[in-house]
Amino acid sequence: MKLSFLKSMKVATMAMPMLCIICLMSCKNDNDNPGPVKPPVTPPVTPPDPPQDTTLKVTSISPATVHYGDTVMLTGNNFSATATRNTVTIGGVAVPVVVASTTSLKVVTPALDKTSNEVKIEKGSNTVAAGNITYTPDVFVAGLENNGANSVAKYWKNGSPVVVGPVASAAYSMYLSGNDIYVAGYVRNVNTNLATYWKNGTAVTLGVGESAAKSIFISGNDVHVSGWEIINGFDNARYWKNGTAFQLDPANSSGNGIAVMGSDAYVIGSRRSSQGVFEPVLWKNNEPGIVLNISNQHRFGNAIYISGGDIYAAGTQNNATTGLPMATYWKNGDPVHLTDGALTDAIATSIFVSGANVYVAGYEALHDPGRPPVAKYWKNGTEVKLTDGSKSAYANSIFVWENDVYVLGDEENPGGAKILKYWKNGTSVNLTDGLYPASGYCILLR
Fold first, then answer.
1. Is the dihedral of CA 94, 99, 105, 111 positive or negative?
2. CA dist., res. 249 & res. 287, Å (int)
3. Do β-strands 65-66 and 126-135 pair in parallel, antiparallel, or remain unpaired?
4. Cα–Cα 20 to 30 A to 108, which of 176, 252, 374, 422?
């Protein structure tokens, strides 16, 4: 038994190292083989910001149809929030930006000379064409309308009347300068008509004696007015600059139209010569006048227009044979007769030059008592009749805007009262109803 026990112990003793080895091997396998290896976790990558778009863009123009002075809003991207760093042009005319942000610009419509006008925006070296804007001009007319007892100076804007002067006044001319509206004519003071102009409705009296302001022209801050004033019992051509009067001729003369070129003011009018013949005279500033062309026939200068350095004047010259007045204009002193004076009396009252085209307004009637005058205009010498001669009609002023011809005048109604009207391309537009007589002497568009 003892031997058997010892043998058993020996076997057990020998087996224990084997168990330890198995256990160690078992433990080693558990540590060296932890299972499938997981890939490393990559943190998410944030993509870089895209490059910033600095391109000027315009998405809208509002409104798309405008008049002078209307506010226009330009909406888009990448404008400068500093107003002066944006340059805006409309129809090639630079306009100041009054309010600016990076997405909108506010500008004010300037005076334009065509219907369709491209809008451009420039910031730094970037320029974008924003599209086109449609410009509709306003129509201004100066004249007078009787109130049943006396004439009243007025102007009409797009057909709506604006009273300028008091009772017993008249308006012969007007000028638009920025937002200022100038009207020239006269105001009756007690028993004397005094040359007057109005700036935005405020009167400035020019005349001391009987006088009238016939034409007005604004150049910078200077107000130039031509007309006449009775001095020592005679009509005298007058030129007023900023209210200071200059006597252009000693006697029997009248200043009718005025225009400014550079720093010089030119007045067209008429005077009676020493031979008793009326002659058209051009005065420069307050220097002695120059007779436009020498003739022994009566000639009268009624209106003036300066274009490209050329001086145009419109009026009449009597036919040497019949003695009848011919509608005439002078270019730099050389006469161009629009009628021949054979059978008719014709008067040129106004002139407008557009490019190479010369437009003259006036009227013509057969030299026969009771034959009513016909309102008309001439384009490069070709006449265009505005009325049919059934009633007396007169054309007193002309203005051309783009391809449209506007002529201002008046025409008798069946009751005999003059209706103030203008013709646009021959189609008449009445400004008064004919209840009281009215006449117009100046038409402008802006």
1. negative
2. 9
3. parallel
4. 422
* Secondary structure percentages of the chain, helix, strand, coil, to 5: 10, 60, 35
Structure tokens at 73: 């809003």
Instruction: Name the one residue in this structure whose structure tokens are 């100041």.
Output: 96
Q: Where are the alpha helices (DSSP H) in 258-310?
A: none
pLDDT over 50 (residue 10) = no
Q: Which two tokens stand for residue 260?
A: 């400014």
Separation of alpha carbons 364 and 378, rounded Å? 11
Q: How far apart are CA 111 and CA 131, in angstroms?
A: 18
Spatial distance between the Cα atoms of 429 and 408, rounded to a whole number of angstroms: 10
- Residue 184 has a pLDDT of 98
**From CA 338, how far away is CA 355, in angstroms rounded?**
19
Of 126, 234, 242, 251, nearest to 182 by C-alpha is 242
What Cα–Cα distance (Å) separates residue 76 from each residue in 38, 62, 100, 101, 206? 53, 12, 11, 10, 52
- Measured CA to CA, the distance from residue 192 to residue 207 in angstroms comes to 10
pLDDT at residue number 261: 97
Q: What average pLDDT score do residues 147-161 get?
A: 97
Mean of the pLDDT values across residues 124-137? 95
| Contact (Cβ atoms closer than 8 angstroms) between residue 243 and residue 204 | yes
Under the banding of pLDDT at 50, 70 and 90, the label for residue 16 is: very low
Q: What is the pTM of this model?
A: 0.87
Q: Are 130 and 90 in contact (CB under 8 A)?
A: no
- State CA 209 to chain mean position distance: 36
Check pLDDT > 80 for residue 35: no
Structural contact between residues 315 and 303, judged by C-beta atoms closer than 8 angstroms: yes
Task: Look at residue 378 in the predicted model and tell me its pLDDT.
Answer: 99
Tell me how crowded residue 370 is: count the other CB atoms within 10 A of its CB: 6
Q: Which two tokens stand for residue 341?
A: 């004076």
Residue 26, H or E segment = helix 2-32
Q: What is the pLDDT of residue 49?
A: 67
The residue with tokens 């009624």 is 302
Tokens of 412: 């008798």
Q: Which runs of E-coded beta strand occur in 308-402? A: 310-318, 325-331, 334-337, 344-354, 357-366, 374-379, 382-385, 393-401
Structure tokens at 423: 């013709």
199 backbone φψ class: left, alpha, beta (φ>0; ψ -120 to 50): beta
Higher pLDDT, 24 or 278: 278
C-beta of residue 268 within 8 angstroms of C-beta of residue 247 = no
pLDDT (0 to 100) of residue 6: 38
Cα–Cα dist 404/67, whole Å: 17
